[in-house]
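Sharing a chain and its predicted structure for anyone who wants a worked example. Both blocks are below, sequence first, tokens second.
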Amino acid sequence: MKAIITGGAGFIGCNAAVRFLKRGYQVVLIDDLSRQGADKNLHWLETQGPLTFARIDIREAEQVAEVFRDHTDARLILHLAGQVAVTTSVADPRSDFESNALGTFNVLEATRKAGIKAPLIFSSTNKVYGGMEDARIVERGGRYCYAELRDGVAETRGLDFHSPYGCSKGAADQYVRDYHRIYGLNTVVLRQSCIYGYRQFGVEDQGWVAWFTIASVLKKPITIYGDGKQIRDVLFIDDLLDAYDAAASHIDIVAGRVYNVGGGPENTLSLLDLINYLEQKRGQTLRYGQADWRPGDQRVYVSDIRLASRELHWAPRIGWHKGLDLLYDWVSQNRELFDV
């Protein structure tokens, strides 16, 4: 069994890679190591089992194609590589487009031309739904929530890209879906919410759950953009990998489908909720600064995960409090990875 993972040295990619290594898979990683912490993740992975690593930027079509030609026996493709931050996309929209839209196109074409029929799972984003200005928001208990969308945002919601990042990921999202309809590739799109967990080197503009946790442990300054009442549904990394497994194992049924994958209404967290949790863990008050809202920042996003539950037979197993405990303990036990 062989798996190809683009972005394999990233947070999600390295967790997926070690899961497959433990199952005895041959793992082929594609990564350009541009993401903070990717080199550390790769070094760690090399101690977990034999793997093949190609240092490639997915914007380079021929280099990507060569790897896929060399591994036509792959039984699974996880396409996780790309630019990940809204703020970065606003500052440099061309690079964002090339990484997310063009990079995904290159992966799809490499898969098609190599004749690989393995499941191809793409990590999309809730940002494809845009600002959702028509969804009425109210404040309850010191946090924002939807007034009517009790189960969260469903896949039937219209797409409305609201930032360069939303546009580039949204274009990729639709290309992945259409390559099943037109070319018969066994693709699945997972529109992911906030994923957090081990080996996540979160920074201020992306990976906020990990970033707040790391900053708390290392006593670094924290800035809250907006009023801190905004909420997201959060999903622990092991639950996300279970969703990947479920999509791959049901590929005969779910190829060409799109699913929202997040913590759902049972696992929502505001920025202030996370601050409160970290204060309790540390036993002291956290000092933090505040700044204006950032472009494209939704006050509320919660995934409706009922379709994934019905068709993938998947649901989160790790509640947000247990997940935060696992992340906090891992950061505390691995300070040397961050204390630089």
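Comments welcome. The chain has a mean pLDDT of 94.
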